[in-house]
């Protein structure tokens, strides 16, 4: 056993040695394999890691690609929401396009309709313009018609009023006519009686006249021996004055064939007006005179007594001229209120107011039969008024302010006028033409024109302090009248012939009266009773009335020496 | 043989109570257990090319001699799968060959190395180191005619256990010892082998190998001849007619009288190799069986013809 044990030990050690040898050989690679395995592990770890990383990278890349795709998609199409919205919008676009197409169609039809409507509109416009034009025309005519209608209505009213007035007046006149008719019948009866008596008397007178002729002839011979210039045959004048006749051309002015004697005795002296006196005129009969004044009144005075007969009112401004008609029934007054007025002296009522001048009326005269009135004004016109019709029948344009007018013949067809431009003009009243213009005779404005009683001469008074006598047929100056100390005082100062044409009287600025003889142009007489400028003188019969500016009127008379014919 | 402490009375209890039952001190067994071989696994080139990974690196592994290839398969496969990336293999399809010869997966690795490496190279008169052992790995075309199919770990365990039982039967005429082992002890036995845990394995195994001074009837010995000769397994009595312990020479002589004469007359023709060493032929078989058996409790003798 021991042996066995020892051998066992021996084997054991031997075998262990063998094993050591084997292991030395077989385990030579242990370290290497271990490190290899470590490396492999690491490698596998790295591979794993790498794989992981690759996976991560791949997934990242994939994610990136996805993102990029998504981004592209998004960039192209926007987000899904936007895509949805864009899809919606596209759908909307499609629908809108459809709608737009529809609208285009509608627009086309509308355009067509618009065109049609435009045509219609144009037509309507035309019609409208036409209508407007017509309306305007109609309105215009309507206005005109309305205006005319108004005018007509006014006219009708006026006429109605006029008719009323006229009817009133007619009634009055009819009443008056009735009275007058009655009076006329009375007068005719009386006239017939008077005529009867007168004829009887005339026969007696004729016989007495014949008896007296011898005596008269004897006396004339005596006178002829004294004065070489025989007057116009007194027989003719006497006869003419004897013959009862209606006023004719020869004596319409109430002219007298009786020799005039210079009235040099102051018979009466009147303080006439409240204000300055502008005009004075004696009646043709010589029984009264009229004065016109700045106090707008005209006063009628009695020559003999110097009493105030009546006062005529109605003028609105100063009275510049007064004038009686041939029968001394009417009085004409010209006034600065651009009117001339007519009064009936019997009633003292105004008969006419002649308005139409546009300047001061400086002069107004009746024609012989008192059917017309001629007036001259500072509006450079002369107007002729028809008293029957009551309105102006002619206007003559004189180119200068008229200071005075006068009538040269019986029917009043020739008119002379004195003007502010120093000239005298002659007019044909029928045609209205200027017949003659006499220039260069005066150096100052003409203040009055006065015809001689026979109508062949005309006296002009001027501010150049001279007076001239013109022949109305040749328009030549017959004589020039002037005097030392004579001075024309106002622009409306009136001078006049004596009734027989032998003398001329004019008033000076110092209040003196100058008488000139028409035969030789010398101063016959100078008398001075007044102190302020004389504005007018009037000579009728044997009386002269002179009016000075300062309200005073002086009545001049002659002494009692008168022709026996009139002494009677 | 020194009497071993009697622990076999309650083997199940000790085994079942503790996995860490200390193994009896046996330097020989320890050395055998620790023996290992460096192996270079290479993927079969044709297969790799077919798969498309032509340049797959080899896998180096130091395998315990007592282990089986089946237990390495998972490592090998993992390696190649890692390396070849796209490869998807099946554990059941893996097989190994050395220089064209398929390796039997139910042989311990050390035995296979002794047979195919050392024995074959000795037979061809080759010298020099075979290490690391170059093994070719196949994932396809399992040679069912040469190898037992289903080389999975479970099959390997069954085969191993049947070897244990066979050895037990040879020794004791019954399999009572093995069958008396509890299920957990049997599992621990295999687990110890698998996890290369010496204490775990031998804590159980020594119960089977201890004879309690009763001489074993026969010894589990297998003799491997070169050139694919069938394995020789004779009934090997542990003692001769003189009740003497038999030596290795006697045992070999019994089976191969021509090659192993009882008395050496000249240069020995052949030697027997165990665990890569060539022990003296005078070594007691009983001792050898007790100390130098593989974990399946067989004494595998590889005959090397000189």
Task: Give an overview in words.
Chain B: It comes from Dissophora globulifera. The complex is a heterodimer of chains A (568) and B (306). With 568 residues, chain A is α+β, with helices and mostly antiparallel strands. Chain A has helices at residues 2-26, 30-77, 80-226, 234-242, 564-567; strands at residues 265-271, 277-282, 288-293, 298-302, 308-312, 319-324, 330-335, 339-344, 349-355, 361-366, 372-377, 381-386, 391-397, 402-407, 414-419, 424-428, 433-438, 446-451, 457-462, 467-471, 477-481, 496-497, 503-507, 512-517, 523-528, 534-540, 543-548, 552-557. A four-stranded antiparallel beta sheet of chain A has the order 1-28-27-26, with no helix packed on it. In chain A, strands 2-3-4-5 form a four-stranded antiparallel beta sheet, with no helix packed on it. Chain A starts with a helix and ends with a helix. Mean pLDDT of chain A is 83; it is low at 229-251 and 560-568. Among the domains of chain B are: 36-148, Ubiquitin-like (UB roll), CATH 3.10.20; 218-305, Ubiquitin-like (UB roll). Chain B is built from eleven helices and ten strands. In chain B, a hairpin with a 2-residue loop joins β3 (95-98) and β4 (101-102). Chain B is globular, with a radius of gyration of 20 Å. The two termini of chain B are 33 Å apart. The A-B interface holds A 4, 7-8, 11-12, 14-16, 18-23, 25-30, 32-34, 36-37, 40, 44, 47-48 and B 1, 27-28, 31-32, 34-38, 59-62, 79, 82-83, 129, 131-132, 245, 275-280, 282-284, 287, 291-292.
Describe how the helices and strands are arranged.
The complex is a heterodimer of chains A (568) and B (306).
Chain A: H1 2-26, H2 30-77, H3 80-226, H4 234-242, E1 265-271, E2 277-282, E3 288-293, E4 298-302, E5 308-312, E6 319-324, E7 330-335, E8 339-344, E9 349-355, E10 361-366, E11 372-377, E12 381-386, E13 391-397, E14 402-407, E15 414-419, E16 424-428, E17 433-438, E18 446-451, E19 457-462, E20 467-471, E21 477-481, E22 496-497, E23 503-507, E24 512-517, E25 523-528, E26 534-540, E27 543-548, E28 552-557, H5 564-567
Chain B: H1 11-17, H2 27-34, E1 36-43, H3 45-51, E2 59-64, H4 69-84, E3 95-98, E4 101-102, H5 109-123, E5 133-138, H6 153-172, H7 176-180, H8 183-194, H9 198-209, E6 218-219, E7 221-224, E8 236-237, H10 248-255, E9 270-273, H11 285-292, E10 299-305
Parallel strand pairs in B: 1-5, 7-10
Antiparallel strand pairs in B: 1-2, 3-4, 3-5, 6-8, 9-10
Helix pairs in contact in B: 8-9
């Amino acid at each position: 056993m021991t042996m066995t044990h020892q051998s066992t030990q021996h084997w054991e050690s031997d075998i262990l040695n063998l094993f050591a040898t084997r292991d030395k050989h077989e385990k030579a690679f242990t370290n290497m394999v271990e490190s290899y395995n470590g490396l492999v592990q690491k490698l596998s770890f790295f591979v794993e890691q790498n794989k992981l990383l690759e996976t991560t990278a791949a997934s990242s890349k994939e994610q990136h690609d996805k993102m990029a795709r998504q981004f592209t998609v998004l960039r192209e199409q926007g987000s899904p929401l936007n895509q949805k919205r864009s899809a919606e919008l596209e759908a909307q676009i499609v629908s809108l396009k459809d709608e737009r197409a529809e609208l285009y169609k509608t627009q086309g039809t509308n355009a067509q309709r618009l065109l049609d409507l435009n045509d219609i509109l144009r037509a309507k416009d035309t019609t409208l313009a036409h209508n407007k034009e017509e309306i305007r025309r109609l309105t215009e005519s309507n206005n005109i018609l309305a205006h005319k209608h108004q005018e007509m209505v006014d006219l009708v009213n006026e006429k109605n009023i006029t008719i009323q007035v006229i009817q009133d007046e007619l009634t009055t006149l009819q009443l008056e006519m009735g009275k007058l008719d009655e009076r006329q019948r009375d007068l005719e009866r009386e006239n017939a009686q008077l005529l009867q008596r007168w004829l009887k008397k005339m026969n007696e007178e004729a016989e007495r006249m014949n008896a007296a002729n011898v005596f008269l002839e004897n006396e004339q011979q005596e006178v002829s021996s004294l004065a070489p210039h025989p007057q116009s045959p007194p027989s003719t004048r006497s006869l003419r004055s004897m013959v009862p006749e209606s006023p004719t051309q020869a004596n319409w002015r109430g002219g007298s064939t009786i020799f005039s004697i210079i009235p040099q005795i102051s018979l009466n002296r009147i303080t006439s007006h409240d204000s300055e006196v502008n005009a004075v005129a004696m009646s043709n009969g010589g029984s009264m005179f009229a004065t016109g004044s700045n106090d707008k009144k005209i006063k009628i005075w009695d020559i003999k007594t110097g009493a105030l007969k009546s006062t005529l009112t109605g003028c609105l401004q100063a009275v510049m001229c007064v004038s009686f008609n041939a029968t001394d029934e009417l009085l004409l007054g010209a006034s600065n209120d651009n009117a001339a007025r007519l009064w009936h002296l019997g009633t003292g009522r105004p008969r006419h107011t002649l308005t139409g001048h546009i300047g001061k009326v400086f002069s107004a005269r009746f024609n012989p039969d008192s059917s017309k009135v001629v007036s001259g004004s500072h509006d450079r016109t002369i107007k002729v008024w028809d008293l029957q019709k009551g309105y102006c029948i002619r206007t003559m344009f004189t180119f200068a302010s008229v200071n005075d007018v006068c009538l040269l013949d019986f029917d009043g067809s020739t008119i002379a006028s004195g003007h502010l431009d120093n000239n005298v003009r002659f007019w044909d009243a029928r045609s209205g033409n200027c017949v003659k213009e006499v220039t260069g005779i005066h150096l100052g404005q003409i203040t009055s024109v006065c015809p001689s009683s026979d109508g062949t001469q005309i006296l002009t008074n001027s501010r150049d302090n001279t007076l001239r006598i013109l022949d109305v047929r040749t328009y030549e100056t017959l004589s020039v009248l002037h005097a030392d100390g004579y001075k024309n005082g106002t622009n409306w100062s009136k001078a006049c012939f004596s009734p027989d044409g032998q003398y001329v009287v004019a008033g000076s600025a110092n209040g003196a009266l100058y008488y000139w003889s028409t035969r030789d142009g010398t101063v016959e007489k100078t008398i001075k009773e007044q102190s302020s400028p004389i504005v007018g003188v009037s000579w009728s019969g044997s009386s002269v009335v002179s009016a000075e500016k300062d309200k005073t009127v002086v009545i001049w008379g002659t002494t009692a020496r008168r022709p026996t014919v009139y002494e009677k | 043989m020194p009497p071993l402490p009697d622990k076999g009375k309650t083997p199940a209890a000790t085994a079942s109570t503790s996995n860490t039952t200390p193994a009896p001190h046996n330097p020989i067994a320890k050395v055998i257990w620790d023996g290992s071989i460096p192996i270079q696994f290479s993927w079969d080139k044709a297969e790799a090319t077919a798969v498309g990974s032509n340049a797959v690196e080899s896998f180096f592994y130091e395998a315990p001699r007592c282990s089986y290839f089946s237990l390495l398969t998972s490592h090998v496969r993992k390696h190649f799968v890692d390396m070849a990336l796209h490869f998807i293999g099946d554990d059941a399809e893996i097989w190994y060959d050395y220089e064209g010869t398929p390796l039997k997966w139910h042989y311990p690795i050390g035995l296979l190395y002794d047979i195919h490496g050392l024995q074959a190279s000795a037979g061809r008169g080759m010298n020099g180191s075979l290490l690391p052992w170059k093994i070719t790995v196949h994932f396809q075309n399992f040679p069912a005619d040469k190898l037992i199919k289903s080389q999975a770990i479970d099959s390997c365990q069954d085969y191993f256990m049947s070897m244990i039982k066979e050895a037990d039967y040879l020794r004791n005429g019954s399999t009572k010892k093995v069958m008396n082992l509890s299920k957990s002890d049997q599992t621990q036995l295999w687990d110890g082998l698998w996890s290369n845990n010496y204490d775990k394995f031998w804590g159980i195994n020594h119960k089977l190998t201890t004879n309690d001074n009763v001489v074993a009837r026969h010894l589990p010995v297998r003799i491997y001849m070169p050139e694919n000769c069938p394995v020789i397994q004779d009934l090997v009595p542990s003692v001769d007619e003189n009740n003497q312990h038999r030596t290795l020479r006697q045992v070999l002589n019994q089976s191969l009288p021509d090659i192993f004469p009882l008395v050496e007359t000249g240069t020995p023709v052949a030697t027997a190799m165990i665990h890569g060493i060539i022990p003296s032929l005078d070594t007691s078989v009983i001792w050898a069986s007790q100390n130098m058996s593989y974990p399946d409790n067989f004494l595998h003798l590889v005959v090397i013809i000189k």
